[in-house]
Design a protein that fits this description.
- By secondary structure, the protein is an alpha/beta fold.
- It folds into 2 domains: about 250 residues, tm_1862 like domain (pyruvate-formate lyase- activating enzyme), CATH 3.80.30.20; about 60 residues, no CATH class.
- It contains 15 helices and 15 strands.
- Helix 1 runs parallel beside helix 2.
- It binds S-adenosylmethionine and iron/sulfur cluster.
- S-adenosylmethionine binds next to strand 4 and strand 5.
């Protein structure tokens, strides 16, 4: 672990409309834009002194919908970053965009700022699903946006979700057919998590909408894994596929539990063993920063054991797992050995120690939610 390197995440919490399945923090109240961005700039400057000896390797502008706000807001943020942080070794600079709010002008502006990776949300190739969940674009509009983005950027990710209402074999086949045609360098294919508090969860609980059943989802997941591999994608993380070495460098900081700093509403950070999460309340956020204070919802200093649990919790998402050597660089051998033995004993068949790395087995990957629940429950 190079403790001199950091990843920066910046949250842009504005959306034109809220999708029914989403539990990320964002608002449709655009009147708050000016005060929010002022507070965000304050947070960026306030923390910069503490990070002046750190080299920023990646920046990720996520949301919300960063492409929904005028690009001068994004440029402003970039200038603060440039003036206050060491970007001399910046390798990956990503912005999340939605099909309905991206255009040539914004893409040119992003490019001129040094953004070199775009993540665009399609979610599905089925217009029926997109409409069901309140998306503001059709699939065809998604494809048009992708083609425009690819004419400016080589490194593009597309987000999909499996398991929204209306999902069936045909909708997945269509989605995969288009992935084969568009061949984005990177794909995130998430499994819808119905446990999050979302409007969709309520609608399903009240019988107004229906989710696909678990057996169908399990078959569809297998189908997706096989098909993506067949068309040249390498699954390197539970929900991530890439081709041509286009793995997400930014997410690697999360998965390897390295140092990353989150700015903005609901953003979290991990610096050495200090962990924090910012408030989700925009008024509290703005008020705190206006008074030159950080807007923490939560802070914590991990002890060795907690840090190790977190590191494995995140690292097991990677298909290559975590190498014993890399863990030994960060943790005391007796604690490390005891913990590895404990998880191998408690999760037989789900986790394996092979070729010097601890990782999920095929069964562990298929039942990863169960594995992670068990892992945090281990005392
Ligand atoms: C926070 S969103 C921001 C991206 C962008 N605003 C968009 O709509 O495409 C990032 C991604 O999280 C995923 N996501 C959001 N809610 C989810 C849920 N409940 N379950 C699984 N994935 C979800 C979607 O694929 C989405 O593209
Ligand atoms: S999925 Fe994207 S556009 Fe939809 S509510 Fe979440 S952040 Fe906003």
């Amino acid at each position: 672990m190079n403790s001199n390197e950091i990843a920066i995440y910046i949250h842009i919490p504005f959306c034109k409309r809220r999708c029914l399945y989403c539990d990320y923090v964002s608002t449709t109240n655009t009147k708050l834009k000016d005060i929010y961005f002022d507070a965000l700039k304050k947070e960026l400057t306030l923390r910069s002194n503490e990070l002046k000896d750190k080299k920023v390797k990646t920046v990720y502008l996520g949301g919300g919908t960063p492409s929904y706000v005028e690009s001068y807001y994004i440029e402003d943020i970039f200038h603060i970053l440039k003036d206050n942080y060491n970007l001399s070794e910046l390798e990956e600079f990503t912005i999340e965009v939605n099909p309905e709010s991206i255009n040539e002008f914004k893409l040119r502006t992003y490019k001129s700022m040094g953004i070199n990776r775009i993540s665009v949300g399609f979610q599905s190739a089925s217009d029926n699903i997109l409409k069901n969940v309140g998306r503001l674009h059709t699939f065809e509009e998604g494809v048009k946006a992708y083609n425009l983005i690819s004419s400016f950027f080589e490194n593009v990710n597309i987000d999909f979700i499996l398991g929204l209402p209306g999902e069936n074999k045909n909708t997945v086949e269509k989605t995969l057919e288009y992935i084969g045609k568009l061949k984005p360098p990177h794909i995130s294919y998430y499994l819808f998590d119905p446990s999050h508090e979302t409007p969709l969860k309520n609608l399903c609980e009240n019988g107004k909408m229906h989710l696909p059943d678990c057996d169908l989802l399990s078959d569809l997941l297998d189908f997706i894994y096989q098909k993506l591999e067949k068309i040249g994608y390498n699954r390197y993380e539970i929900s991530s596929w890439s081709q041509d070495n286009k793995e997400s460098l930014h997410n690697e900081f999360y998965w390897k539990n390295l140092n990353y700093i989150g700015f903005g509403l609901s953003a979290g950070g991990h610096l050495n063993r200090f962990r924090y999460v910012n408030t989700c309340d925009i008024e509290v956020y703005v008020q705190a920063l206006t008074s030159d204070n950080f807007a923490y919802e939560f802070t914590y200093n991990n002890n060795e054991y907690q840090e190790l649990t977190e590191t494995l919790f995140m690292g097991l998402r990677l298909l290559e797992g975590l190498s014993y050597e890399s863990l030994l660089d960060r943790f005391e051998k007796p604690i490390l050995d005891e913990f590895i033995n404990k998880i191998l004993k408690n999760l037989p068949g789900y986790i394996t120690y092979e070729d010097g790395a601890i990782k999920l087995t095929k069964k562990g990957l298929d039942f990863s939610r169960y594995v992670f629940e068990e892992l945090i429950a281990l005392e």
